[in-house]
Write a structure and sequence with these properties.
The complex is a heterodimer of chains A (346) and B (310). Chain A is an alpha/beta fold and 346 residues long. Chain A is 39% helix and 19% strand. Chain A contains ten helices and twelve strands. Chain A has helices at 3-20, 64-78, 96-108, 122-128, 158-172, 187-203, 220-232, 246-255, 283-294, 324-339, and strands spanning 49-54, 85-90, 113-117, 136-140, 151-156, 177-182, 208-213, 237-240, 258-263, 274-280, 302-305, 312-316. In chain A, the strands form two sheets. In chain A, strands 2-1-3-4-5-11 form a six-stranded parallel sheet, sandwiched between helices. By secondary structure, chain B is mainly alpha-helical. Chain B has a single domain (2-130, 147-295), classed as ABC transporter involved in vitamin B12 uptake, BtuC. Helix content of chain B is 72%, strand content 1%. Chain B has helices at residues 8-37, 45-63, 66-90, 95-118, 141-145, 150-168, 170-180, 182-187, 192-218, 230-240, 245-267, 274-295; strands spanning 130-131, 147-148. A two-stranded antiparallel ribbon of chain B has the order 1-2. In chain B, helix 1 crosses helix 6, helix 2 crosses helix 10 and helix 3 (66-90) packs antiparallel against helix 9. The longest helix of chain B has 30 residues, at 8-37. The chains are: A alpha/beta (346), B mainly alpha (310). The interface between A and B is large, with 58 and 61 residues.
Amino acid sequence: MNKLSKLAVMILLLALAVSACAPAATPASPTAPPAAEPTDVPVEAAEPFRVAVVTPSANNDLAFSQSIHDAIVLVQAAMGGPENMQYVISESMFVVDDAGAAIRDYASQGYDLVIAHGSQYGGVLQEIAPDFPDISFAWGTTVDTFGIPNVFAYEARSEEGGYVNGIIAAALTESNVVGVVGPIETGDAKLYVDGFVAGVNAGNADAQVNANWIGSFGDVALASEAAQTHVGAGADVMAGTAQMVVGAIGVAKDNGILWLGTQASQTALAPEIVVVNQIYDWSGIILEIIDLIGQGTLGGQSFEITLENGGLYMEYNPDFDLPADVRALADETVQGIIDGSINVLP
Amino acid sequence: MIESLFTAQVLLGILTSGIRLATPYLYAGIGETFGQRSGVLNLGVEGQMLLGAFAAFYAVRQTGNLWLGLLAAILVGGLMGLAMAFVSVTLRAKQGISGIGFFLFGLGMSDLLFQTLLGTVQTVSGFRPLAIPLLSRIPVLGPVFFNQSFLVYAAYLLVPIANYVMNHTTLGLKIRAVGENPEAADSLGVSVSRVRYFTVTLGGVFSGLAGASLSIALLNVFQQGMTSGLGFIAVALVYFGGWRVWGVLAGSLLFSMVNALQLWVQVLGLPIPSEFAVMMPYVLTIVALVVAVQRVRPPTALTKPFVREG
């Protein structure tokens, strides 16, 4: 292969890398969710508690990064403000090595809790955390602490709200075709899609649910075409997860197709077609982690946000006229998941 | 099961999606072809696209005027192209490295502008599909080809125009001469710098339009990093197309159609893991690229700064 052909292949591989490394962000609520009540947080500490967060995209991206930012701001308020809790954030760290440098830097500066908000940061965290045994780290979304005593893990049981959304989709579809767009078949995105598919199947035996994965968290154009594929296949209700679904929501809006959101309120983008959103609220588990650190436990535990503990909740679009029987069905489903009578992914 | 792929619904769906998906590649790829045929490799296309996408989106958001949005994308893309030309032609910087620099600048600056001026993901009312009278009524194929937005039509119209300019005009001859043998072109009185400034700036304009085609026509949103590698793929498609405008069209359509195909493969539930489906367009393009590059010679002076001797 001559020099230029090698260069050509390298360019394509770079394209692939840029595409795959797009920020793994997922849409978040523009309005702050209710914070969990603080309990034994160290509000009277002489030195302020210091939290550093590293995120793959901007903290105002209506996305995954904003969800943790909103949560930390709520926690800061619950702890009595910046006098008691100092908070810094390194945003848009979609290059994992850069994120690793930031995580190490915050740990070197003696921050009490360093949060690596993105499952892609696991590898670097596994290398860094043992070098700072007195610093507490947290990362998500995952349940894996690597067995390292100063690492907490957190996960969103997104399949729960996915199942509820699936039940709603099954009740609302008239064509009996439902579509769902996913980024990469992993993490909370996979949980959500699996839950959604299970919900549609449980709610309407005649309904067909089609799923497609676009292989990227950031390719808005491909997410849009993935949604067009569902439209072509006859879907009249759609869902999707991760940052790039704004492209799919646009297609749903243009075609008058109902949309079921997750991770954040997507209502503002298309108030006429968004029915409901599953919202992530991390503030409860962040408070719990800070509480544990105050008691001397620096890691080794994993946490989940669920419908039961309030870390996940369904936010209905007030401007969408959801039939009362469908709303009642959705509420029953939420209750069933909370009391254990419904097993989402057996 | 594979037969389900060969229904009219699926084939038309793939065709329609492919035509749309190819639009930004066409703008960016044709612009890059002009630059490379004159001897300048611009790897900053992705950054130019992002800034063009933001400029168009923001102008439309502020004024509601789609044409002002287009103008903003053209101006911003042109400025980025001009800056790239200054660095690569006047300063004779290494083109690959400076291109990556411009990519990172566009990535960061569009992110900063988004956060400062917009704050959150918003939508605009962009170019709507425009049905061409009579043609759009042709059964089956009419809605596929003749019910697209203005920027989609413009991208495909650009192909024969760009091909004509490149191969049948004095300007095109100068561009090709400068890319093949700049010393000879210079000795015949052709200003190598001026031609390269023109092509790289023009490439910037087309990259800006590529971004605008996403933010105010196909998607009608702006999100940080929304091009997600499209600009680099466009550069690769220039190699794929053998530095010919029609080749870029063929590559853009092939890549886009295969991408549309993999989405349908998943929707139809064919027993192919999604990871393999997603890889299909890239694998096919790499294979075709390697084959194509073996038989087509690139412009001789590509990536080589021109220094007048004596």
